[in-house]
Amino acid sequence: MALIVLAIIVVLLLPANRAASVAPVSATSGRIARPTTSMDDEPTQMKILGHRLVRVAGGVSVGDPYPLFDRATIGRNQGCTVPLSDPLISSIHAEVKIDLDKAFIADKGSTNGTLLNDEKLPSEELRPLKDGDTIRVGAITLMYRSQP
Q: Cystine design at 104: which of 15, 17, 88, 126 (Cβ 3.0–4.6 Å)?
């Protein structure tokens, strides 16, 4: 009897484990998204494939790509999605949001501002990003890329 109960429990749990190993499709973009994990292995945000920032000027890491998530922060704080070491950059300087396969950027009230294609962004106002746009924070310039 105990063996039958154990077999039923295994059968009930097995499909749930298989489903968890399949990469989910982002509801906002239709692209396959991969969950990132926190210290306790719980998914915290979804990486949207194809969206990234590339460092094009400033510092020694020119050319480094930064994959973007449904929500990504740019700043001096090491917990940011795009951590940048520059004294002119605020702890959390700017934020990129991806919604329905479109990307937007907002300055998060930074001290020295965020430039999108050499135009200063108003604080907390979302602006659309398109492939090839440049974002300057402090002495660092990033380029938004949306193509895989």
A: 126
